[in-house]
Amino acid sequence: MLSAQLITIGTEIVSGEVVNTNASWLSTRLERVGVRVLTHLSVRDQRQEIAQALAFAKAPLVFVTGGLGPTSDDITRDCMAIHTGVPLDFDNQVWTDLKALYEKRALTLREAHRWQCHFPRGAEKLNNSAGTALGFKQTLGVQQYFVLPGPPRELAAIFEEEVIPRLKAAKEGGAKWVRWTCLGVPESEVAEKVEAIIAGREIEVGYRAQVPYVKVKLNLKPDQMSLVSEIEAALGSWIVAHGEQDLAEEFLKAWPDPQLEVVDLITDVGLLDRLFAARASLEKSGIQVPQIKFRNDGGAADSYGLRTSAAGEELVTEVRSSKGSSTERRTLPYKLPLNSERGKRSAAEWAIWTALCAVRARDSQP
User: Fold this and answer.
1) Which helix (H) or strand (E) holds 155?
2) % helix / strand / coil in the chain, to the nearest 5?
3) What are the φ/ψ torsions at residue 35 (nearest 5 degrees)?
4) Last-in-domain residue among 224, 242, 260
5) How many structural domains comprise the chain?
6) 246 C-beta neighbours (distance < 10 Å), count
7) What percent of the chain has pLDDT over 70?
8) Cα 257–chain centre separation
9) Residue range of the domain that includes 199
């Protein structure tokens, strides 16, 4: 399995002035495509510290973010050239393209912007569809360096459009992460089932409890993929999602009506937050989703929708759509009180899962 180390350059990151969201985002995306992230390292905009960070990183893939702008403290490209032992070359075509872009946007191009047109000799340029600072890729021995700008929007654009295709080509035939999300079972029971199947094999496995779920992931080589069916048989109905599936997104995609009214008397804004976040994510991907109308006044739903309430310590989930209606009562696992913070978070997820099951059941009916 390919491994990577991340280096974030920026005094504002080290001082705590800016939260390093890039490291979290990059790690998540790399893990999804089967690249194991080993370390995160943040350093100030200081040449010696950047040089030490680059010397420390020994992984096959090294991702360097930040310091590609036009100001005097943007020294990443210079440090990369020194580290790899090559000079910086000025690229006239990049300068011409940059001038055309600024003219099109009616912006003033400064002489300082010429610095963004310098690249270590032999570097492969990575186009930036979201900004002006191109990234670049360098090779030193067996190591590959991906150098990306710091603004999150620009970093994400280059990573998705330029880096991902290169990583997929490099990883063809390698090990891959297989993931499941389980609900209604302790982490220890999930681990017991999985460990019994993979015992004696060299397989990297990870478990993470995230109320009320248990997340499981295995890093499997092509000749180990037959274990997937064994594990899914062992975990059975505990599995509620595969891979990166999100139950709230799955529920909204499955909802059969143009509007979804939600009456929530249990989770405060927990259920609202989950559904609106899922809706925003789906809309960003161009997926049509129902309009959500939210109420917490205790009344019955005026139209097709989802209602949560309590009967003692039982969670009551009512679902009504154009295809039918259903009601389910459930005591939360571990007898979590519905009025506790953990209970509210758990109730929101159980309500979503219950509603998704109800919609799917009706879809399967003739």
Assistant:
1) helix 152-158
2) 40, 30, 30
3) -105, 125
4) 242
5) 3
6) 16
7) 96
8) 29
9) 179-242
